[in-house]
Amino acid sequence: MIGRLNHVAIAVRDLAAASEVYRTTLGAEVSAPEALPEHGVTVVFVTLPNTKIELLEPLGAESPIARFLERNPDGGIHHVCYEVDDIRAARDRLVRNGARVLGSGEPKIGAHGKPVLFLHPKDFLGTLVELEQA
Amino acid sequence: MIGRLNHVAIAVRDLAAASEVYRTTLGAEVSAPEALPEHGVTVVFVTLPNTKIELLEPLGAESPIARFLERNPDGGIHHVCYEVDDIRAARDRLVRNGARVLGSGEPKIGAHGKPVLFLHPKDFLGTLVELEQA
C-alpha cells in the first residue's frame, strides 16, 4: 500500500539557523522559507536526490509543533510521510487493521495541496506517520 | 555534500510485531530479520520505491539503542542516514564547520558493510545523523 517516502519532517526552533546547518554544514540545497499559516508552520524544503527533508518552525499560537518543541527543545524528527494512491482506500484498510487515524478521520488538504491524514504514533512504533495522496 | 537519504531507522521493542505493522497494516515489503551482533541490533528492511526504512531491535547487553527505548518505550525514529561520496572529506568539512562527530571521529564499517560516521544530535537539530559512504 505505502509508496514513496515523500518526506521526513524535522521540527526546529529557529528556521534560519536550521537552514544554515543543512545548507552550509551539510551542503544541501535548501529552499526559501514559506509561511503556511493554515498549518501553523513556516517550512523550508531540503532537496535530496531521492526525497526531501522538511524543516518546520512553529507559526502562530496554535502551531501543531509547539508542544513537540517544548518536549524536545533541540528540535527533532517530527514525522515521516508516505505516499499512497488512494487516501480513502488506505484509511479504510488501516481502520480495518485496528489502526487509529487522528482527528475526524477525513483527509484534509496538506502543506503540498494534496489530501493527507495523520496516524496515531502508538499504532506505528512510536512514530507519527502522515499519508499523502500522491 | 549530502546525497540520497539512504534510510530512516526506527527503534522498536518487538521486531516481529513491528514487521507485521509495516507488512500487513501499511502493506509494504519487509525483509526477514538479520542479526548484526557487532552492531548490537537485529534489523529488518522495509523497501520503499525511493529509499528504505530500517526497523531495529536491541540485540545483546550493549545495544546502542537500549537507552533510546528506555526513554521511548513505544519506539521511535532513531536516526536518518545520508549518503556521501567521500566520508573522510565529509568529516573534515563538518569539523571545519564546528560540528561534532561521535566516537573517535574515524569511520567504522556500518551495517551495510560501508564506512559510516554518526554526528552529534545537538549540532543537527536534535536529530542523530549517520553518514554512509555510498
From TrEMBL, chains A, B:
GO terms for biological process: L-methylmalonyl-CoA metabolic process. Keywords: Cobalt, Isomerase, Metal-binding. One of its GO terms (molecular function) is metal ion binding. InterPro entries: Glyas_Bleomycin-R_OHBP_Dase, MeMalonyl-CoA_epimerase, MMCE/EMCE_epimerase, VOC_core. Residues 4-134 form the VOC domain. It catalyses: (R)-methylmalonyl-CoA = (S)-methylmalonyl-CoA. It comes from the Bacteria. Transmembrane segments: none annotated. The keyword Isomerase applies. Its EC number is 5.1.99.1. It holds the Pfam family Glyoxalase_4. The keyword Chaperone does not apply. Belongs to the methylmalonyl-CoA epimerase family. PANTHER family: METHYLMALONYL-COA EPIMERASE (PTHR43048), METHYLMALONYL-COA EPIMERASE, MITOCHONDRIAL (PTHR43048:SF3). This is methylmalonyl-CoA epimerase. It comes from Microvirga thermotolerans.
